[in-house]
Amino acid sequence: KAMLDAGANAVFLGDPTSWKANAAFDKLATDPRVQVVEIDVTDTDSVDRLAASIGGKVEILVNTASYLRDGGILGRKDVILARDAMEVNVLGLMRLAQAFGPGMCFRAADGTNNAVAWVNILSIHAFAALPSRGAWSASMAAALSAAQTLRAELSGAGVRVLNVFPGPIDEEWEQLTPPPKLAPAAIAKAIVKGLQDGIEDAYVGDIAEEIRDRLRENHKAVERELGQ
Known about the structure:
By secondary structure, the protein is α/β, with parallel strands linked by helices. It has a single domain (about 1-225), classed as Rossmann fold (3-Layer(aba) Sandwich). It has 9 helices and 6 strands. The protein has helices at about 1-5, 25-30, 45-55, 80-90, 90-110, 135-155, 185-195, 205-215, 220-225; strands at about 10-15, 35-40, 60-65, 115-120, 160-165, 200-205. A 4-stranded parallel sheet has the order 3-4-5-6, sandwiched between helices. A two-stranded parallel sheet has the order 1-2. Helix 6 links the parallel strand 4 and strand 5 (about 160-165). Helix 5 packs parallel to helix 6. It starts with a helix and ends with a helix.
C-alpha cells in the first residue's frame, strides 16, 4: 500500500502461503493495481519461474521473506532450526538475487527506467545477537553479509540497495514480545522514505535506533546485556 500511495503503477505481491487465509493480505489484493504471485524463496524453481514471468517488469524489489523462531544453540540437539532460518533468510535472498538481479541491472541501464532499487528487510539483531533467538540472529548476520555483497555487485549497474533494520515487529511470531513493537505500516513508510532519500541503511523504531547508537558507543556492553 505504501508503494501504491507513493506512486507505483503496479505491485506484484508475493504469496508463499496461498493456502492460508489472511484478511489483510486479501483486502490489499483487491486493488486492481496489485497482482498476487506465488513464490517460495526456499524453492529455486519457484523463484526462477516467477523471475521468468515478471522479472523484466520489476524496478523495485522488496525482500520481505522472513523466518523467525525462538531458540539458541545449546538447548537443541540438532541444527534444524538454524538450517530453516538460513534457508529462508540467507539462501532465499541469494535465490532472489540470482533470479531477479540480472534483469534489474538491465533495467537500470535503461535511461527511461533507471529508478531501480533492491530492499532487504533484516533486523537490528543482524548487528547484535539475541541469544534467546540465536539461530535466527545468526541468519540475520549472514543475511546482512549477503546483502552487503549484493550491494557491491549491483552498484556497478546503478541498482541501489537499501537495507532496513527494524526492532520487534507486531506480527505472529512476536506475540509474546513486550511492547514497543513496530506496525508493518511503519516499516513500509520507512522504506518509501529511504528510497526517496537515497540512503543505504534505515533503522526503524526506537529500539533499533537505541541499539544502533549503543553499539557505536560500546559494542561489548550491548552484547553482554542481550545475553543476560
